[in-house]
Write a structure and sequence with these properties.
- The protein is an all-alpha fold.
- It has one domain: Lipoxygenase-1, Domain 5 (Lipoxygenase-1, domain 5, Up-down Bundle), CATH 1.20.245.
- Helix content is 54%, strand content 0%.
- The protein contains 16 helices and no strands.
- It has helices spanning 6-16, 21-34, 37-46, 55-61, 67-76, 78-81, 90-101, 111-118, 135-158, 162-166, 169-179, 195-212, 218-221, 249-255, 259-273, 300-320.
- Helix 9 runs antiparallel to helix 16.
- It starts with 5 loop residues before the first helix and ends in a 16-residue tail after the last helix.
């Protein structure tokens, strides 16, 4: 049977020019989760007069430690570790990310901003609980709200008022370095003059890092992504069919991934979901161990951290992986 479906033709056209679902995943995932968070984390470590003992540095630092080495490995070992998409080199990857970043500002990828720009109304995707007909949105908003609650306590305890934020020279150094085109080069960071501005930046920053952890859970790969025929990472034929050209089953199969590509893609996913993180978000010794601040549970910020860990456990066990929860698989930082 001949196929002239417009959607099919669009899919073939997009994949043939390097914008397959797999390539979009690489571009958007890396752009949203990595390539904004990375410079923000690096300037946090390198900003002048920002010692590691300061409170504003200590909390984010714990989840940003392995950024640089991961990015170096990705670019230097592209041929060996990159997923088999239409992006064939580190330069093409950087060019794709540069295109993705055009016109985007820091808060554009916060989930509620994204939903608003897409015109998605919760009422259209709600049956019993908000967004229960759109689970991905419900999951990400849960992570966002839990992150925001932690940041709220952190900022309120660390800074007594807006003036304290504006007068924190170490914090100002970090934000200045992050916005500097020759350093972090992050667009859209607000002036750091209030607790509200700091809360907005830290929530967005820590949310990206935390939400990335879901990619290490088995449910994120199986069965949706590992069924590669439903999520082709690339085409096996670069020829671009004419819009009205009939594509029979035999011709279509020439475009779709071959077994070798499918095997490489599955291996790529399994590398993440079946390897333990270097440091799990939930400490092996329990939620009250390995606290960020030296003053113990008497510090409300540590108490908020414990609450955040418990909420993540609840999210994994009740929303995301009820049958086989992998609490220890969620990483502390963006390791991979």
């Amino acid at each position: 049977m001949g196929l002239t479906s417009q959607k099919l033709q669009i899919l073939i056209a997009l994949i043939a020019v390097g914008l397959s679902p797999g390539t979009v995943l690489v571009g958007r995932h890396m752009g949203v989760r990595h390539l904004v968070s990375v410079p923000h984390a690096l300037t946090l470590d390198s900003a002048p007069a920002l010692p590691s003992s300061t409170p504003v540095q200590r909390s984010p630092h714990r989840v940003a430690a392995s950024y640089l080495s991961t990015r170096e490995v990705l670019l230097l070992l592209w041929d060996y570790i990159a997923p088999p998409t239409s992006i064939a080199s580190p330069l093409q990857f950087l060019e794709l990310c540069d295109r993705f970043a055009q016109g985007r500002e820091y808060f554009d990828d916060d989930p509620r901003v994204t939903l608003s720009k897409a015109g998605l109304d919760a009422a259209l995707f709600t049956k019993d609980k908000p967004w229960d007909l759109y689970p991905v949105v419900r999951h990400l908003l849960t992570i966002w709200d839990d992150t925001a609650a932690f940041v709220e306590v952190f900022v309120d305890i660390t800074y007594v008022n807006d003036e304290a934020v504006a007068l924190d020279t170490q914090l100002q150094s970090w934000m200045k370095a992050s916005a500097d085109p020759t350093a972090g080069n992050i667009r859209g960071l607000p002036g750091m003059k209030s607790k509200g501005a700091l809360k907005a930046v830290l929530t967005s920053f820590l949310y990206r890092i935390t939400a990335h952890g879901i990619s290490r859970l088995n449910n994120s790969a199986n069965p949706a992504l590992t069924f590669t025929a439903n999520f082709p990472p690339c085409l096996q034929d670069s020829r671009l069919p004419a819009p009205q050209e009939k594509v029979d089953t035999k011709s279509l199969l020439k475009f779709l991934p071959k077994t070798g590509i499918i095997g490489k893609m599955v291996n790529f996913y399994f590398t993440f979901v079946f390897s333990p993180p270097y440091e799990p978000f939930i400490p092996a010794n329990g939620v009250e161990s390995n606290l960020f601040f030296p003053t113990g549970l008497g510090d409300p910020r540590n108490a908020a951290l414990v609450t955040r860990r418990k909420k993540l456990i609840s999210f994994i066990e009740q929303q995301y992986e009820a049958r086989h929860p992998q609490v220890s698989q969620w990483p502390m930082s963006i390791e991979t």
